[in-house]
Amino acid sequence: MSDTPEKPRRLVTARRTLTIGTLAVSLASTAHATIVTPAEADLPDSYWLAAGKGEGEGEGEGEAAEQDSSARMDDDAFLVALGQLEGRLFAATALAEDGQVDAAAALLDGPAGDAPAALDARGIDGVADTLAALDTAIAEGADTVADDYDTARDLFESARRETTARAQFRSLIALTRAAAETYAGAVDGDQITDLAAYQAAWGMIELAKVEAGEMAEANHDRISQAGQGLVDALAFGDPAFTDLQAAGLHPDASLLHGAAGRMDLALSKVY
């Protein structure tokens, strides 16, 4: 199998002149980088998006296999945990860029989950320092928030490049379901009672849109078709959100569950 070039570094452009409503669009549209794949007629389900050394799931792990096995998750679980962490950081960055420092800090006021240790277990260096720098910048509303988020995202992408296209697609569906559960926990009747949970769900869904959108731009018909199918399915959940303050919202977690179901169907047509 031909080696595949690494995905180019994706920059997140978040400027203070942007409103909450346009920030997500900026993060998604200006950060896209085409995934370059060999011009093969078809690729196996386990095709590696990055330079791959193996033909099947679980191969090509290299030195990472020697890391602490208790922290190293299987690819599917890892990608979901990573998405949950980055979704919160995505939303917190948006809040901080909009000057809502207290809300951003509240969103990060909790355990980071398993992702940081799992990143370390995969041989991704500098995780603790990078996340600490981003956490500090967000909490202080510093001018470096966008740059610090971009640095963290570089680390996340280094880990994603070692997983398969199929695992990444599956994880986006699982992440959408996790967002639906998080969202449901923010709702009491027809009101949002836990704004931080709502914002975390927003961040997870926006991240899923970014990742699916990039896959839709892949230079391979099968990956591109699956990515576009997930992009279209995610749009079903759009009415579940207004802005990050849930202004004028009639919350409905079933919209996100519905989006996940449509994502399953879209992926089943390709993989």
Give the secondary structure arrangement, pairings included:
Elements: H1 20-30, H2 75-97, H3 101-107, H4 115-121, H5 127-140, H6 145-160, H7 165-185, E1 187-188, E2 191-192, H8 195-216, H9 221-234, H10 254-268
Antiparallel strand pairs: 1-2
Would you mind describing this structure in some detail?
The chain has a two-stranded antiparallel ribbon. The chain has helices at residues 20-30, 75-97, 101-107, 115-121, 127-140, 145-160, 165-185, 195-216, 221-234, 254-268, and strands at residues 187-188, 191-192. The chain is mostly helical and 271 residues long.
Main pleated sheet:
2 strands, antiparallel
* Total number of beta strands: 2
The gyration radius over C-alpha positions equals: 18 Å
Roughly what percent helix?
Answer: 55-70%
Poorly predicted ranges = 1-69
Structural class: mainly alpha
Largest beta sheet: strand ordering: 1-2
The rough form would be described as globular
Strand composition percent: under 5%
Mean pLDDT: 79
Helix segment tally:
10
Provide the succession of SSEs: HHHHHHHEEHHH
Intertermini distance: 20 Å
Brief description of this entry?
The protein has 271 residues and is mainly alpha-helical.
Features of the shown structure:
single chain, 271 residues, mainly alpha, two-stranded antiparallel sheet, 2 strands, 1% strand, disordered N terminus
